[in-house]
Amino acid sequence: MRTFLAVILLSFLPVTLLAAPVRIKDIADFDGVRGNDLVGYGLVVGLDGTGDGFRNAPFTEDILGGLLERLGVNATDDALRSKNVAAVLVTASLPPFARSGSRIDVNVSTIGDAESLLGGTLVMTPLLAADGNIYAVAQGSIIAGGVSISGEASRVVEGVPTAGTIPVGARVEREVEFDFAEIQNIRIALRNADFTTAARIEDAINADFNKRLAVAQDSGTVIVEFRELGSVNPARVVGRIENLLVEPEDRAKVVIDHRAGTIVMGERVRISRVAVSQGNLTLRVSEAAVVSQPNPFAQGQTVTVPRTFAEVRDEPGIGFAEVAENATLSDLVEGLNALGVRPRDMIDILKSIHAAGALHADLIVQ
User: Fold this and answer.
1) Which stretch is the leader sequence (predicted)?
2) What burial letters (b/e) apply to 196-209, b meaning 16+ CB within 10 Å?
């Protein structure tokens, strides 16, 4: 049996790289400037026979009966058994500083056995926040992103017709109480905590205002005091801060998705000098039973004789290649591609390099 080895010699020297400057608003959030999640339970009507079955979803019958009763309609149980209605959960996000009367988008999803929301209309649905108060009311025609066609013997479904959206389908009825103009300081929360980035944000703010306003509290928080500026409008100060440019620092990462065979590597990934060998040996074993039956006039019994087939396949190996000194990440990728390494084989190679301590990056396997 022949053995094919692929040896890769990779050598990198430490190189200091600086990311492109980005705005502070693109890498951090400001304390208090945040949205709030809303949820509600409602009813969709006007479906073309694709709604809930009341036997499997009795809660749909309850909410429909309650709705009709509030409207002054006394309907019997038999009259409520229609396939044109469906119970749904309605979700939305209340943006920061949303004012009463403004409109927001909502998402609608079935919770019963409805087949599709195509052509449906959401009936007035209150949306509650985590504190139990109603902050918005949703209603309108649903835009579903799928198609469902069924017959007596088969059914074809494309997309997800059991979920949809209503653009600007909810009206804000209650405002979140927060007086931004009265704040004395604000915290900047980094989305990717890093001491170097926090220090650069502190330096950028202090240099722009020519005052010591910002202090990096930790790797993920920078506090900005407004008292040194006297009587100012905090909104204008934050608007000035969020557009300052800084160079973010981040850890080197390699992200691997086993299911899709995807590999994403940052430009800071470095690999020490290392040798890697890979074999393409495939062993296949299969079973195929053979039935042995005697002649009609012979005195014997029918028996099953096992048959095993074993095959050892040694695929052509990949040749030798060497990545020169001072190689960049693009050189590494080009070197692996030149060897004809498939994505899934490349995943195994990177995991082995990381286990050997030669991959200087965080390996994230999804």
Assistant:
1) 1-19
2) ebbbbbbebbeeeb
DSSP state of 348: H
pLDDT in tens, 47-68: 888 877 766 566 666 677 666 6
Percent of the chain that is helix, strand, coil (3-state, to 5): 20, 35, 45
What is the number of alpha carbons within 13 Å of residue 160 lying toward its C-beta? 7
- Count other C-beta atoms under 10 Å from residue 336's C-beta: 24
pLDDT at 155: 62
Q: Are 50 and 147 in contact (CB under 8 A)?
A: no
CB of 109 within 8 A of CB of 163? yes
Give the per-residue pLDDT at 357: 76
Q: What domains can be seen in the chain, in order of their start residue?
A: 1-19+250-366 (no CATH), 36-172 (no CATH), 179-246 (3.30.1370)
Please list, in sequence order, all residues whose beta carbon lies within 8 angstroms of the beta carbon of residue 261, skipping any fewer than 6 positions away: 343, 344, 347
- Residue type, position 127, single letter: L
* Coil, helix or strand at residue 269: coil
Low-confidence residues of the chain: pLDDT under 50 = 1-18, 281, 283, 319, 321, 323-326
pLDDT, tens digit, for every residue of 135-189? 999 999 999 876 666 665 566 666 678 889 999 999 999 988 877 877 888 899 9
Q: State the pairing for strand pair 143-150/245-246.
A: unpaired
Q: Coil, strand, or helix at residue 133?
A: coil
Helix locations, the chain, DSSP H:
58-70, 77-80, 195-209, 234-241, 329-338, 343-355
pLDDT value of position 289:
63
Which helix (DSSP H) or strand (DSSP E) does residue 254 occupy?
strand 253-257
For residues 55 and 71, what is the distance between their CA atoms, to the nearest angstrom? 24
